[in-house]
Write a structure and sequence with these properties.
alpha/beta; binds beta-D-galactopyranose; binds calcium ion; six-stranded parallel sheet; four-stranded parallel sheet; 13 helices; 347 residues; 12 strands; single chain
Amino acid sequence: MDVKKFLAAGIVFAISFLAICGCGTKQAAAVDMVQVGVAYYDQSDTFLTELLGCLRAQFETMESGRLHITMSIRDAAGSQRRQDDQVKELIDSGCNVLCINLVDRANPAEIIDLAREHAIPVIFFNREPVAEDMMQWDGLYYVGADARQSGVMQGELAADAVRADNNRIDRNNDGKVQYVVLEGEPGHQDAIIRTENAVDTLKNRGIALEKLSCGIANWSRAQAQNRMMQMIGQYQNQIELVLANNDDMALGAMDAYKKLNVTESALPVFFGIDGTQAGLHAVADEELAATVYNDKEGQAAAIAKLAVALALGEGMDGIAFEKGRYVYLEYAKVTSGNVRGFLGRGD
Ligand code: GAL
Ligand code: CA
């Protein structure tokens, strides 16, 4: 009996000893858990789909034995109300940082209130809230790019092309370039600002322009094809230059010409912005004259670094903010001369 008791006490002691040691080791190798909630405006958007692919890859490379990161993604399918509900649900599920691509960039009030109430920091990206809303709370950040820069670069690329190949581009030889614009969503910082700066830059570089038409195609390839079909119907072979606010719309414009079987010598020159996979391939094939690279890898890296820093409350020092809470990545010009370097980036 005594021996049994002695043995039992020994076992209890051994188990508690192991448990204490176990806890000790666990503390030494404590795992940081970062639960990221991502909400974006619409899964049909090509650039955003590619950007989120980069973001996922970034979080994967940041994971280690000591850092565990999960990412939950919600698609708002174009409804701000749905996105507000999704954010509520992400917060309830325990996210400790939010990355938000607003549906309506002028209407982040509900999300800001929810986040502040639960003290969960928010990184807005790609669709920039107005400055007034960004000032509502100091847990709000923005990662994106400067729309003006992309417009200026597109204008410079187009001006260079007109200079280099004036006879081919000014097909009717009237000394002016007849152009049309395909615009993104009204109210988006990357629509009107890109258009204005591209056109102004062409003019400042001494290119005489004649605007034939402008159509809104909401970033969409299919909508751009439709708009372009209407414009071709109206202006036939007079269009010499197509400035599109993004690659998908430039590709949609090219689709319209293909559908109508227009001969190559009657085609305008097309310019896009983004450098999506399809856009870069079109530049490599010399169908798209040039594009402007919207640095999705850089933006994803900045979002990921900031998200982890905010969730863990450390590591903010290495981040280069503008105006305290903004991170803007540089655009870059892409032509057939340097496109290979960009095509390799996603690999
Ligand atoms: C822009 C991009 C567009 C579209 C839009 C969505 O920056 O150039 O292609 O993705 O964001 O907000
Ligand atoms: Ca002309």
